[in-house]
Every structure is written in structure tokens, then in C-alpha cells.
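for the writeup, i need someone to sanity check this before i put it in the appendix. the sequnce is what the collaborator sent (i think, or maybe the updated version? ugh). structure was predicted straight from it, no edits. if anything looks off just tell me and ill rerun, i have time this weekend
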Amino acid sequence: MKLLSVNVGRPRPNPWKGLEATGIDKRPVEGPVAVCTPGPKGTGAVGLAGDRVYDVKHHGGDDQAVYAYAREHLDGWEPELGRPLRNGEFGENLTTAGLDVNEALIGERWRIGSDVVLEVSCPRIPCATFQGRLRREGWIRRFTEAARPGAYLRVLQPGEIRAGDSVEVLQRPDHDVTIALSFRALTLEPDLLPRLLVAEAFPARELERVRRRLA
């Protein structure tokens, strides 16, 4: 299991949400990239140096510090989208190989390289910017149906990472709530919502929303 690339966003206009810019256009970078805790959502800060988000209401902050997507799943989307997908094409910070990101458990911890420790936090929810960026009508629905969302991670131990670093699963919690399951619960299968309550590492704000929906 390893990092194929570390990807940082370049600001681009965002006509799909009426925002001044978007950071979804992530490109692989060479050399080490510093990783740190960005702090609360609302500032645009994320976990990788040189990156940021512009939809500060929905993105960024400690629980969405880093976004990972598997190269294997990018490869799987290529025939359907009808074109090659480069690393970073889905807006991911980390393009991984040999790691089933969607089957990662909420609260699972990864060591990347020698220093950085990340914790699996929650799934990515697709938005209008993602659909517009891919120029694919109906993409939000299709991506949701596939339930291969990729994982947001929080930073537990800062440091530096680079392409080629190994990824080691340090710890897996004692429950069965995966990224894929939590995504399905939050989107098309609300009957699964009660199962999320055992995943203590799920973002507190999201767990509170789940409890309200179940009340």
C-alpha cells in the first residue's frame, strides 16, 4: 500500500456554485509536502501545505483535512467517463494504490511515510462543483449510486509526505462502519443510519445530525 501521488489544488473559477473559486483542480506535486491540522471549518484551511478550499461552509477543517481516493477506482471510472483520469482528477489530495479506501473503517488510522498519522473520518459527498468539473450531467446521482466516495481524514500526527511513501494501517476500531456503508446511510439508504452511532470517530456534528434524523 502506497501513495502514488500527493495532489494540491490550483484555484479555478467556480460557476457551478456561484463562488469566486474552487480548489478541486488538484495536481500532483513533487517533493515533500507538509501535513498539519488545519483547525475548525470555516477558514478554508486544509491539511496539506499549499492547498485550500473555497466553499468554506461545506469543506475544510479538521474532519476534512485530507481527501484520499484509490487509483484502482479512478481506473474503474475511466471506461464509463470515456477518458483517462489523472491522479487528482476527483479532487483528491492522496491517490493511493493497494488500499481499498472505501472499505476503510471510520476511525481507522494510517501511517504514511515515517511521520504522518491520519484517521479516517467520513465519506466525501458529491456536489455541483464535482459534477461541473467533470462535465457529466447526472454525475452526482451516478457517483452516489456507485458508493465509491473516497475518504476524508483528520491529521493526528503532522509531518511530511511525498509520492511513493508507504501506507500502513496502524489500527482498526471494533465496529463494521466503513466509508462505503456510512456514505450509503447518508445518501440513498437511510435505514442504515442507526449503525453510524457506534462509530465514535465520525464527525461530532454529523453524528448529531444523524441523531436528529432518527429522533
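Helices lie at 71-81, 128-134, 139-146, 179-186, 204-214. The two ends are 41 Å apart (CA to CA).
thx in advance!!
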